[in-house]
Amino acid sequence: MATTLLFVTEKEAIFDQVNEFFKKHAPQIELVFKTPQWHELQSLEEERVIQHKAMRAWNHFKQPLIVEDSGFYFKRYPDFPGTLSEFALSGLAREGINKLCRADNQATAFSWIGYIGQSNADCYFNSRVEGYILDEFAPATQTNFDMMPIFHPEGSTKTLQQLIGNDRELQFSPRLKACKKFINWYFDLPEDV
Amino acid sequence: MQQKVYYVTSNRGKVREAKRLTANEFTLIKIIDKNAELEEIQTFDEKTVIEHKAQQAWNAVQGPCLVDDAGFYLKKYGFYPGTLAKPTAISLGWEGIYRLIDDDNRVTIYCRICFTEDGINFHHFRADTEGEIITPPSLELLNSRGFASIFKPSGSKYTYLQMAGKQEANEYYHRTKALKKFFTWYEEQVRQRGVTYVADDSGSFND
What we know:
The complex is a heterodimer. Chain A is an alpha/beta fold. In chain A, 36% of the residues lie in helices and 25% in strands.
């Protein structure tokens, strides 16, 4: 019988990506999509943001759940935008991001998965991938305006968006890498499985 | 008798400014300093951010209290960074900010005051000042004095830093203007209904 885990995220596209991954790599877990009715914490510290997300979700749903947080950093501005990525992308839009890219478009993408289980114990898993931001990225749709279409992992010929569903997605996606770490931990599998 | 109001903030300079204003111009109001770090949430919506702070402030003091939130908007980018101005400036740094405004240095700096007596009803007072970000006189000054050393309000020949302590500051400082709006409104409330909260020396409230 499958174990049910809530996946509390604002974006259905993220749920779909992670849900597909779980179906393949952890079919014993059934993810249920829930949207948070609150805002996340304003902090530049990744750990604080993901912990706040997880605890806030737990306090609301009181059920085993996972949350996620993703973003990227410019190599030239090593603390930016990080936890503010979504806001920087929507606020600066194409023109502002391109200005920052002109100096150096190398970047690091990161993702966190936070889990809180039945006993209220929390665990966090993260992953980082080196790459670059496309200098002249195409305008994204309002609902999909995040780093996925503009972040190009090192060694890949595709953006994170283009990698969705691809055989090599796990190799390059920090979100799926963090998910895999969680699954390995959850089922007590070795790290490299 | 004075109406007592908590100013809940971790910045003592802001409290000093509010006390100076009430002592000089709004004598029906007495500001009580409540030192507290308030959690902030991540959204561009000014009202949502400050009401979240005001709710925490009220929970801490259980009486009339005010909080403030300030930020700036780069004209070129519309509503950015706004409520996220402080973490954006810290994480991006001045070099990044200057890169973003290399062809349009206009900026609007704002301060919003939120006041509540009951933790349910929130009153907002907002003031902004338009101006531009100028080339820093020196890197040392920029690093030590930050935004005040490079923000020059429209219509003034001085930066915020240069007008500190001068009469001109009352005309341009966004926080001063917002506080005055609040104090003007609140004094009128007090005149109409009388003083409702009197603090003893410890700062606790008695109806």
